[in-house]
User: Which sequence fits this backbone?
């Protein structure tokens, strides 16, 4: 709580919930990446799409993004404003990556996109700019 009685941006409920969601989606992306790297037959592509990638490459993409998202979630729980900006950027990247991932896991991608949009909203609306004391 800030001295005026309101909640500050670093400790607001929306920020904490977004941090937990970042941790969860990051861990799930790590598991998704490991599954794609370990066995290319885990995911089946539905239909023909313009953007076709090797599933091993997708596995590495999800694994790296997942690790970075988990670290960002930990930073948000620690109250870092840099992690807040990184969380917004990474959730935006995750929306794009999961949109491209739609041919492989359509329902899962739609769910993760919805969670990422909520993360972006929560981090943007709970961000308060308080002047530094002189």
Assistant:
């Amino acid at each position: 709580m800030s001295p005026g009685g309101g909640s500050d941006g670093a400790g607001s409920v929306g920020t904490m919930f977004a941090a937990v969601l970042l941790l969860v989606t990051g861990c799930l992306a790590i598991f998704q990446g490991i599954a794609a790297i370990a066995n290319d037959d885990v995911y089946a592509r539905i239909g023909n799409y313009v953007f076709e990638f090797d599933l091993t490459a997708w596995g590495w993409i999800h694994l790296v993004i997942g690790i970075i998202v988990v670290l960002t979630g930990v930073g948000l729980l620690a109250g870092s404003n840099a992690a807040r900006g990184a969380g917004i950027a990474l959730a935006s990247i995750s929306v794009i990556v999961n949109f491209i991932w739609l041919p492989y896991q359509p329902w899962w991608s739609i769910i993760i996109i919805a969670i990422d949009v909520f993360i972006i909203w929560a981090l943007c609306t709970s961000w308060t700019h308080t002047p530094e004391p002189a």
User: Anything to note?
Assistant: Confidence is low (pLDDT under 50) at residues 1-6. Residues 13-38 form the longest helix (26 residues).
